[in-house]
Amino acid sequence: MAFFFNHPSQYTLMKANDVKYGRILVGLSRFASAMLSPLLIPTYGVLIALWCSYLSAYDMGLRVTVLLVVAGITCVLPMFFIATLHHFKLITDKLLVNRKERILPFIFTLLCHAAAAYYLYSRVHAPMWVVMFSAGGALAVLTSAVVNHWWKISAHMAGMAGIVALIYNMHMMMTEAFNLVWVLMVAVLICGMLGTARIVLGRHTLGQVLAGALNGFFCVSLLMQLFG
Fold this sequence. Notes:
By secondary structure, the protein is an all-alpha fold. The protein is about 75% helix and about 0% strand. The protein contains eight helices and no strands. The radius of gyration is 20 Å and the shape is globular.
């Protein structure tokens, strides 16, 4: 008899735990998506390039200045642009959940990536492999913008896979200040976690996540290998 009396409460407890863990999973997925936003990826990439390669020998003040300028161009400006679009009701959601509302932000972000690549090339005189990381990001955004006309490819995954491509090519080109194999493994793990987060949040399908990852890795690797 005790079993039958306890069964409903046990079922309710299990259900409550499922809801609790579900909320935690969604919360972690949102946190991962925010911290690995495509707008932050160029800054992370330049940070890795300047602090994990032979460029780490350069003056700290110069590296911080370059990092802040790149962050301003590729993160702050697009965020301001998206906020402006939202203010004038040209888009309904700052997270750009609606595929049809991503066109203008994609175009503006593409221009910002191109501007960052120009800044690194003409003002900073950075090595071509650093410039090509930024240019590869621009190419990935362009590809995403074109594909987005028919299909909601993952921009988050394109960005994170671009970081993986940067670390991989730094290792292969021997521009690293120390062995980046472990850093590469962590980046791949984070890439997988981000893809899972995007699926958990219902923002993308598995196919869209994989396509985004291939887009980012291929575009950055292609330009770094050809011109870096």
